[in-house]
Amino acid sequence: MARVVCKPSVRFKGFTRGLIRILGALQIVAERIPMQEIVITSANDGQHSQRPRSRHYTNEALDIRSRSFVTHESRQRFLRRLRRELGPRFWLDYENHGKPSAHFHVQVRKGHRYTGGLCGGRRESRT
Ligand SMILES: [Zn+2]
């Protein structure tokens, strides 16, 4: 079971339904992964594309460290699980694959404004 942590430079400047839904899905997926930590490396901070304006700046996107996952298979499995948890209104990508800056990017799908529920729900109550 991995803990979800943030790199010290991560800044949240605000929250949207989409961002909270992403955080919830990430927590749910992390709980099923036999790793120490899943690290959020960027929220509304750092350098992201201006054209089109990145969803990081509208509090609708997160970056996640990919090198914590040691094998190609574990990275693919993580992406699959997170995609399944989030559903079609979100978009995930493995950016800069093969470079030192490689990371997972998760955002509300292009052209959408997420107004749905705040949690995915399959595993809400754990006592
Ligand atoms: Zn990003």
General description of the model:
The mean pLDDT is 91. This protein has a single domain (3-108), classed as Aspartate Aminotransferase, domain 1. It has 127 residues and is α+β, with helices and mostly antiparallel strands. A hairpin with a 7-residue loop joins strand 4 and strand 5 (103-108). The chain starts with a strand and ends in a 19-residue tail after the last strand. The chain is globular and about 30 Å long. A 5-stranded mixed sheet has the order 1-2-3-5-4, with helices on one face. The protein has helices at 17-30, 72-86; strands spanning 3-6, 37-42, 61-65, 90-95, 103-108. Helices cover 23% and strands 21% of the residues.
The profile of the biggest β sheet is:
5 strands, mixed
Note the beta-strand portion: 15-25%
Bound small molecules, deduplicated: zinc ion
Strand elements, count: 5
Q: Which class do the helix and strand fractions yield?
A: alpha+beta
The name of the CATH architecture is: Alpha-Beta Complex
The shape is: globular
User: What are the segments in which pLDDT stays under 50 over at least 5 consecutive residues?
Assistant: none
Count of discrete structural domains: 1
Helix content: 10-25%
Q: Termini separation (Å)? A: 15 Å
Mean pLDDT: 91
Please state how the strands of the largest beta sheet are arranged side by side: 1-2-3-5-4
Please write the string of helix (H) and strand (E) elements.
Answer: EHEEHEE
Number of separate helices: 2
Under CATH, the topology is which? Aspartate Aminotransferase, domain 1
Q: How big is the Rg?
A: 14 Å
